[in-house]
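Box S1 | Example of a co-folding query
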Amino acid sequence: MAGNWKMHKTVGEAVALAAALRERLDGAEGADVVLCPPFTALAAAGQALAGSRLALGAQDVHWEPQGAFTGAISAPMLLDLGCRYVIIGHSERRQYFGETDTTVARKVQAALGAGLAPIVCVGESWEQRQAGQTESLVRGQVAAALDGLDADQVAGLAIAYEPIWAIGTGRSATGKDAGEVAALIRETAGLMTAPTAAARLRVLYGGSVTPDNIAEFMEEPEIDGALVGGASLKADSFAAIVQAALAVKA
Ligand code: 13P
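Box S1 (continued) | Returned holo structure for 1,3-dihydroxyacetonephosphate
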């Protein structure tokens, strides 16, 4: 269960939210809870989470470990701050920052090489869904991201299905539709490596997840968790989402 805070929260706000979530969720056994603050708040949020069950994640990473890449952040730097996870290939990065399947694959390999667990985002636009392209597009995104990875590496990944039209719109996918895409993500991963690795791969749903609709997604057998944007910015709503998810999967 991951919260993507996107470009929200100053350092002080991030520490307050991390501390509030620690209080509510440190006892939430059975769920891996990941908070992904902006880069500027990673160090302080990490300190607020130190010694807890809640993990820290970043929202992006560069594929090189160091070098002349002004403004970029590398996997060893994230590891140094205590990050265990990193979101890669979010549709907002693909749409606004020129992220491609090629850069996503490079970032996935760099993250895994450094010991970070990638949360890879895939998903179609509304036009692509209307044109019946969801399956081919998602299969292609997954195949590109997993290219060259071995079974153990795939087993350590999370892939988030985030239909672009559902992000920040209040119009989520249905559990059934999300479950179907989750199944084809797992199938694609299995064809590329081994079914045993694909079974361990974690598939998340993201896009207008709330405390009210999370159960619908978690009831889908192929969906293991959620990547939450807006509703992860408040302690009460994110904690309620995690608790509701646990109640379904328990
Ligand atoms: P919302 O939950 O705000 O729709 O955002 C989803 C998302 O993009 C998470 O990465």
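The longest strand covers residues 83-88. The chain has a mean pLDDT of 97.
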